[in-house]
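Dear V.,

Thank you for sending over the compound details. I've combined the ligand you provided, calcium ion, with the protein sequence from our construct and run the structure prediction for the complex. I'm sharing the raw inputs here so there's no ambiguity about protonation or stereochemistry in the SMILES, which I know was a concern on your side last time.
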Amino acid sequence: QGIKSYAPVTQERLNNPEPANWLQYRRTYDGMNYSPLDKINTTNVKNMVPVWTFSTGVNEGHQAPPMVNNGVMFITTPQAQVIALDAKTGDLLWRYKRQLPEDLFQLHPTNRGVGMWQDMLFLATVDDFLVALDAKTGKELWAKPVGDYKKGHYLTLAPQVINGKIIVGTSGGEFGVRGYIVGYDAKTGNQLWRTYTVPAPGEPGSETWKGDDWKTGGGSAWMTGNYDPATNTAYWGIGNAAPWPGDAHPGDNLYTASVIALDPDTGKIKHHHQYHPNDSWDWDEVDPPILMDVTKDGKTIKALVHPGRNGYLWTLERTPEGISFVSGIPYVHQDVFASIDPKTGRPTYNEKTTPKVGKDVTFCPSLWGGKDWLSATYSPKTKLLYIPANDNICGRVVGEKKPHIEGQLWLGAELEKLDLSMKDKKVPAYMGELQAWDVSGGKKVWSYKFPTQLFASAMATAGDLVFVGGTSDRYFRAFNATNGELLWQHRTNSGISGGPTAFEVDGTQYIAVQSGWGVDAQRIQDSLAKLGIPGVSPDVPQGGVVWVFAVK
Ligand SMILES: O=C(O)c1cc(C(=O)O)c2c(n1)C(=O)C(=O)c1cc(C(=O)O)[nH]c1-2
Ligand SMILES: [Ca+2]
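Below is the predicted structure of the protein with calcium ion bound, written out as structure tokens.
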């Protein structure tokens, strides 16, 4: 066992990946989650069949995209496992499984993938270690503690790799951590820098916090950032403020619910844009914006495009000098923002839909947002952005004041009273919606609606297809990217919430995805089932399986 010939992952290959490969979480640094492969296309996708499957032996949410480097596939699973497979045959090459501490409580038992550099792989673990593996053998090279799981710090993201630096961000917004992003040296595992996402007194932005709130303010950073090599700038999304009700942490609370521009060499925050100040809804804006071109007043601008958890589709302009607001438009029903400042994009709020300590508040979209951490995808060919959205689902938060105890859940909300409800209190025409947007025109071009939730990353390909799972009926689907027609579907073992990938080996194109339902997809399912909506069952079978498809 082991891999005899392995193609080292260089910076050149990360900047310009071969079409056949999928070397990063969203394939390219711009975050488009797009594959230039087109052998599988709108004409022949109807003949797509499974060619192999692989059972991971683990339950819970399998959210990692199957990543492929010259015929070698790497997947990660919950419980800090990495599996290397022959991408063509499904043969097991090696398996790494970390021994997790017995007292580890996992609020989000998942992992979103590896980072690749030279002949090494990097895994960020739920017990809060960054682990380096030999890509050829799966042997552990080093393991470094990032924070302390006993204090509510944990890692679920795929590490970001830039010029031999491995960058990870902490989870823990629901434990009242003070969020941070950390850069490591790939070879030695030495920490190079650590940047807190909540400023300490005296640091820029500290004026947006009162008293000691900054110490427990949240701002976790639990999704891989994107990167602009032209300016050597990493763009990371920042999570919710803690605890949830905004009156428990007065002020704008930088840099929660923001995008920050980071220098990956030093960790210095160059710029930021806050989508919504004083977050009160658990609207982590951790999914980083897609770096793409947008037309504005007849001119092409370098944009940052982000379908927010707050239900608005944000377009920002990125320049070496900063980030500026271009537009913000709701893509799902949103009853929280009363107005948006046309110059700055700063929203004002409706009091009635803003959670507060001691208040029982219902707001739309729910705390899981118009879109949670799932990746949208942009096709430079159709020039459309595809958003896996949820509409018509609202949520309830009953705010409560509790002392912060390190390492303990600290929502600022009564756990038993967290609920979902339907807009207008009736069974809606749809909940999940795959939306296609002309971002420059600010128009929704087509959408495909599902009777219940949609909770999965989407991938567009040059075959003019959009692939997405995400429904509790366990289907994996392909849509015509131009008009939204459903062209193909296949039932899998469990529900899919991870991202699909496309790759090629020996001239054959494949589509891969992990099926394995769990984490918040299951929590939403349980809440929806309680509402007694016909056809909605909490019973979605679990168990992870890698599926690989090709055209017959
Ligand atoms: O604030 C945080 O640190 C944090 C971390 C995570 C995570 O690491 O998965 C999630 C969330 N928040 C969260 O709010 C959320 O809705 C969520 C869903 C999921 C999931 O895996 O489906 N993770 C997380
Ligand atoms: Ca959160």
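A first observation: Residues 173-174, 239-240, 282, 284 surround calcium ion (ligand 2) (CB under 6 Å).

Warm regards,
I. M.
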